Structures are given as C-alpha cells and as structure tokens.
C-alpha cells in the first residue's frame, strides 16, 4: 500500500454536522467539518487513552472533542483544551498530546485526503469534465469488496475479461476474445489505453443505442489519485457523441478489503426514469467483476508483479503499466513496509503525516514504516517476460474452440435486474433446474411493477400466488 496519494474518503454529501470515521490502509481516521464548514481529517485514535474521536462531539470553534475525557483537537491535530486542566496550555501539562492531521480537498462531490506526509509532492487531482457539464446526468454508488485494492482493480484492467466475464466480444476480430489493437500511453501519474472495435451490444434498451456492426471507441484511463479507473465508451458508435462514462475510485481499507466508489455518467436518454436502468446496467458489470475478485487467491495485497506469474502478450500490458506506476512510488520511498505492519485490530496504525514530519519528536504512537528507496527486492516490471505471440506460427485453425459457448453463465450473474442479497440466497437454495424459471418469473413481475430490484418480499408474493 502507498502513502502520498489523494484517496477518496467519503462522498461530500455524507459529511455534514457529525464526525465520520473511516479506515484506510488499516489506520483509523476521522473526518469532520470545522466552524467554517471546511472538511478536516485527523487520526481517529486519541493519544490519551486510544478512544475513538468519531464518537465525540463537535464544538462551535470547529474542534472535535474526545468522548472519554473531552480533549479537544482542531483540524491541524493540535490539542486546544484539556477540560480537567483548562487553565493550562494543553501541550504544557501533556507534552505528547498531539495527533496526526492530513491534507484535505473537497472536489467533484468527494472528500479527498492525502494520506501521507508530502501532499505537495503527491500527484494532483485530475480533471473530471463530466461533473459540471449539464449535458451529463450522474449517479453515485459505493460498496465494500472483500478483496485487496490491487485485485479489485485488476478485474477491470484488461480487455480479454470483457468477452469472458461480461459477454462483450470483439466481433471485428477473427478471434472475438483476442484483444483488439490498443495503444497504451504512460504518463507520470497514470496511463491511457484506447481501442476501437465492433463489440457485441448489450441486450434490452442498450441494443437500441447504435446500429448493428457499428464500431465504437473505448478509452480506459488510470489516475494515481484515488487509484481511479475511468472508462469512456462512445456507446452510440463513433461520431455519435453519445457517451457512457464511469469513474471507479478505490480506497484500501486494509490488506484484504477495499471501499469501491463509483460515478456513472451519461449524455443520452436524459429522462430521470432511465436513471435506474443506467445504474443497473453499470452495476451488472461491477458485480460480475466483484464476484471474480472476491474468489481470487491468494488473499492479501501484492507488493509488486508476481515473479513467477504468467504474463501474456497484449492482454497483460495494461496490468504491467499499472505496476510500472507503483514501482515509481516505491522508488520514492512511499510504499508501506508490509512485513512490519501489525494487525490493525490489535495495534494502532498511523499513516505518516505532514504534522509528524514537521515535528518528529514526542508522539505517543509510531508511524508505519515504509520501504526505503532502492532497498526493496521486489521484481521489476523490466524483469517480466512473455512470449512474442505475433512471432509464433499458429498451430490451430482460426475457428478452434468456437463451437461451444464462450462462457457457461450462472443465470443470476447474467440477470437483467439487481437482486437483493437474501433473495439471491433463496434462489440458490432451490434445485438448479428450477432456478432459471424463478429468475425469469421474478424479473418479469418486477418489470411489470416498474421496479428494478428483486426482493424477498416479491419472491414471497409470487410463491403465494402460485400456491393459491
């Protein structure tokens, strides 16, 4: 995991007049607004007895009070008052009473926190032109994935998974699973991959967005701030000007879990009635990826490309571009030393902060250690090799293995509507030969009622109707 990155800590709408606790990299932090309404972020662990500051209350002067003994801290991490000794300066009667504070920005409806001690050196926030463009409608979503943030990101960082996981094949190719030609441009703070292809249109209302066999241009971008992946698909076909755009922000909760937040934008079908369908269709892909990520092994974030891993020509180039960026972060000394990390439930994890760097002495809790530049024995991307496939003569006919379906699909995975978790479990408990019928009937009933969500209540109503 890496410091000196602007991570998304919360949606701005969720930070009001109460403190909000969040965890990142196994460290507990708290957000609050000061007396001017400006968002602040400090460590959530009171240095006195370790109480959670998020359980405390905000004062009119913009300070946050510990719920245990009332110690009050401002957004710069300074203890302004110790109530039991209010006639003395706090740092005089308790010299170690200070707390780590972090740089904060509020932009694009998000609270961004630079978790590190060099915010001025961190890659600055990128532009999001769709945010204040009235031609686009936006929707937000967030959920926790039981997977580390590299694995979560990798489910979207290649082209081959599109036909295999989502059924979006590249029809312009002799091999519809083979990734089309794409150009990867690596910058200091991210990369861009662009490809053009005649892809399989989605079913339902989405199949009406463009004419059959029309080529589309798809742009995939990765930004270091927020570990953000952005996809822009000209869904109406090249030259149509109709775009489906997503932004995926990943914040590592710890080594095994990731907070995933999304923005979904569109500049077509502007009627509010289409919002639910727009979100549903995007989340269908998200949840297909999630299912893959949460089942992958080993569990726990990698610290670099796997030295004995398999890398193939073209389809793994985007992943290696990702590791190249993180290699640069490691070379700057910003990668946490995973071997020295304690269990976040049994120890206090503190992310290095600007306040600690400016005043390094007298802290109650030590900051997490980082890998020294040049000291890591990680495998470099330069050491990764793979077969130069274009130079290898094919040994099989071009239609080999195309006689069978591309992927055997679980009907729930390919469901056309979103399913409540408990409703999904009920279907899975039914005999396999009955499951497709239950799904079909439930989704038909949901559509007839004008809803986009299959619930336990709906399943029970259908069961009662059949019983009568």
Features:
468 residues, 3 domains, 20% helix, Helicase, Ruva Protein, domain 3, Rieske Iron-sulfur Protein, globular, alpha+beta, 19 strands, six-stranded antiparallel β-sheet, Naphthalene 1,2-dioxygenase Alpha Subunit, Chain A, domain 1
Task: Give the strand content.
Answer: 15-25%
The CATH class of the largest domain is identified as Alpha Beta
Structurally, the number of domains stands at: 3
Mean pLDDT: 86
Q: Helix share of residues?
A: 10-25%
Distance between the termini: 57 Å
Question: What can you see in these coordinates?
Answer:
The protein has 468 residues and is α+β, with helices and mostly antiparallel strands. The protein has three domains: 6-114, Rieske Iron-sulfur Protein; 122-331 and 378-408, Naphthalene 1,2-dioxygenase Alpha Subunit, Chain A, domain 1; 418-467, Helicase, Ruva Protein, domain 3 (Orthogonal Bundle). Helices cover 20% and strands 22% of the residues. The protein has nine helices and 19 strands. The chain has helices at 90-93, 149-154, 161-166, 275-295, 317-331, 354-358, 421-429, 435-448, 456-467; strands at 6-11, 20-24, 27-33, 39-43, 57-58, 64-65, 72-73, 79-81, 101-107, 110-114, 137-145, 182-186, 190-197, 216-223, 228-233, 244-252, 258-266, 418-419, 453-454. The strands form four sheets. It has a seven-stranded antiparallel β-sheet. A hairpin with a 3-residue loop joins strand 12 and strand 13 (190-197). The longest helix has 21 residues, at 275-295.
Question: Any chance you could write out the topology, listing elements then pairs?
Answer:
Elements (H helix, E strand, L loop, with lengths): L5 E6 L8 E5 L2 E7 L5 E5 L13 E2 L5 E2 L6 E2 L5 E3 L8 H4 L7 E7 L2 E5 L22 E9 L3 H6 L6 H6 L15 E5 L3 E8 L18 E8 L4 E6 L10 E9 L5 E9 L8 H21 L21 H15 L22 H5 L59 E2 L1 H9 L5 H14 L4 E2 L1 H12 L1
Parallel strand pairs: 18-19
Antiparallel strand pairs: 1-10, 2-3, 3-4, 4-9, 5-6, 6-7, 7-8, 9-10, 11-17, 12-13, 13-14, 14-15, 15-16, 16-17
């Amino acid at each position: 995991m890496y410091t000196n990155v602007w991570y998304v800590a919360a949606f701005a709408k969720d930070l009001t007049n109460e403190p909000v606790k969040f965890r990142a990299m196994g460290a507990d932090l708290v957000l609050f607004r000061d007396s001017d309404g400006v968002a602040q972020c400090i460590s959530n662990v009171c240095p006195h007895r370790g109480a959670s500051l998020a359980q405390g209350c905000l004062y009119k002067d913009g300070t946050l009070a510990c719920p245990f003994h009332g110690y009050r801290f401002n957004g710069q991490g300074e203890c302004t008052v110790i109530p039991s000794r209010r006639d003395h300066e706090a740092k005089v009667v308790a010299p170690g009473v200070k707390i780590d504070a972090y740089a904060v920005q509020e932009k694009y409806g998000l609270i961004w926190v630079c978790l590190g001690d060099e915010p001025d050196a961190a890659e600055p926030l990128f532009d999001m032109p769709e945010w204040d463009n009235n031609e686009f409608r936006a929707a937000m979503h967030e959920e926790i994935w039981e997977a580390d943030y590299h694995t979560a990101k990798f489910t979207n960082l290649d082209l081959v998974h599109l036909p295999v996981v989502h059924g979006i094949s590249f029809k312009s190719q002799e091999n519809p699973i083979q990734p089309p030609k794409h150009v990867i441009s690596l910058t200091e703070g991210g990369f861009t991959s662009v490809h053009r292809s005649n892809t399989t249109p989605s079913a339902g209302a989405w199949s009406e967005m463009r004419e059959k066999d029309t080529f589309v241009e798809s742009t995939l971008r990765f930004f270091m701030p927020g570990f953000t992946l952005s996809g822009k698909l000209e869904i109406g076909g090249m030259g149509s000007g109709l775009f489906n755009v997503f932004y995926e922000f990943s914040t590592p909760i710890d080594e095994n879990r990731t907070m995933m937040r999304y923005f979904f934008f569109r500049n077509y079908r502007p009627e509010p009635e289409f919002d639910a369908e727009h979100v549903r269709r995007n989340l269908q892909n998200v949840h297909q990826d999630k299912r893959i990520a949460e089942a992958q092994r080993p569990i726990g974030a990698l610290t670099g490309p796997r030295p004995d891993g398999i890398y193939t020509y073209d389809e793994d180039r985007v992943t290696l571009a990702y590791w190249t960026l993180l290699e640069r972060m490691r070379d700057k000394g910003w990668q946490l030393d995973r071997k020295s990390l304690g269990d976040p439930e049994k120890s206090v994890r503190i992310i290095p902060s600007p306040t600690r760097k400016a005043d390094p002495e007298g802290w109650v809790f030590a900051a997490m250690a980082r890998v020294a530049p040049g000291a890591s024995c990680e495998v470099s991307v330069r050491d990764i090799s793979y077969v130069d496939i274009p130079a290898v003569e094919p040994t099989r006919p071009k239609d080999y293995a195309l006689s069978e379906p591309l992927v055997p699909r679980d009907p729930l995975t390919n469901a056309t509507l979103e399913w409540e978790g408990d409703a999904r479990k009920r279907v899975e408990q039914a005999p396999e030969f009955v499951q497709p019928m239950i799904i079909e009937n439930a989704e038909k009933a949901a559509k007839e009622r004008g809803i986009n969500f299959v619930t336990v209540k709906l399943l029970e109503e259908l069961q009662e109707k059949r019983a009568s």
